[in-house]
Amino acid sequence: MNNFNTVISLKSAGIARLLVRLLWVLLGFGVASTVLSLLQVIAKPLYGLLASLDALLSIVTLLFSLISIIVFMIWLYRLHADLKDIFKEYPITPGGAIARFLIPIYSLWGIANTLSTFADRFKGEGEDLTRLSEQVRSLIGPLYGCMIGSNLVNRLAFTEAVKNPEDKFLPFWFLFSCILDLGLTAILLQLAKTMRTAITQKAKSAIS
């Protein structure tokens, strides 16, 4: 069996490619939103001309975000199905991985547990796979920082927008929110790419 067939045999291969493309698109939207938010802070007259574009971009970004979340969960499920096939003793089931990411409160522990379990399993594989596992582990802290920070700042910005729409500091909250969302998207993109590369290389080495 050649490497092409090995990649195709992975249940997560196709959905991983789709996820990475979606995250790249979201990253582009995030950069555009951040630039527009910066203009709102430093060049309000210019931003006034682009406000309708910003509103449209927010709607499109929300739509792509919802699609990306669904695709991410499908990928996560299939990824752990592949891990179960490759490592018979892998401790996290596909359903267990979904639960660790989706269940409130439980996810505070579960997301780190899922990613660290993946990193630990590949750490002992040596060479490039060890490097990839270390990359996954190094992204856990920044992932939590951006997730928690984005959630808090978005709540604060929404509350201020409702209570006092004319608050002069409101544009700064929106800018900070855009920066954190941009960072979160970049981290998720890097995680998806790194984990996809790791399991693909492991699948190839398993039959070589």
Care to give the gist of this entry?
The chain is mainly α. 87% of the residues lie in helices and 0% in strands.
Produce the secondary structure layout.
Elements: H1 3-9, H2 13-42, H3 44-86, H4 94-102, H5 106-123, H6 127-138, H7 140-163, H8 170-207
Helix pairs in contact: 2-3, 2-8, 3-4, 3-8, 4-5, 5-6, 6-8, 7-8
Characterise the protein shown here.
The protein has 208 residues and is mostly helical. The protein is 87% helix and 0% strand. It has helices at 3-9, 13-42, 44-86, 94-102, 106-123, 127-138, 140-163, 170-207. The radius of gyration is 20 Å and the shape is elongated.
Keywords:
mainly alpha; 208 residues; 87% helix; elongated; 8 helices; disordered N terminus
Q: Secondary-structure element sequence?
A: HHHHHHHH
Radius of gyration: 20 Å
Question: What percent of the residues sit in helical stretches (DSSP H or I)?
Answer: over 70%
Distance between the termini: 9 Å
Number of strands: 0
Largest sheet: none
Number of helices: 8
Mean pLDDT: 90
User: Which structural category do the helix and sheet elements fall into?
Assistant: mainly alpha
The coarse silhouette is elongated
| Low-pLDDT ranges | 1-8
- Strand percentage, roughly? under 5%
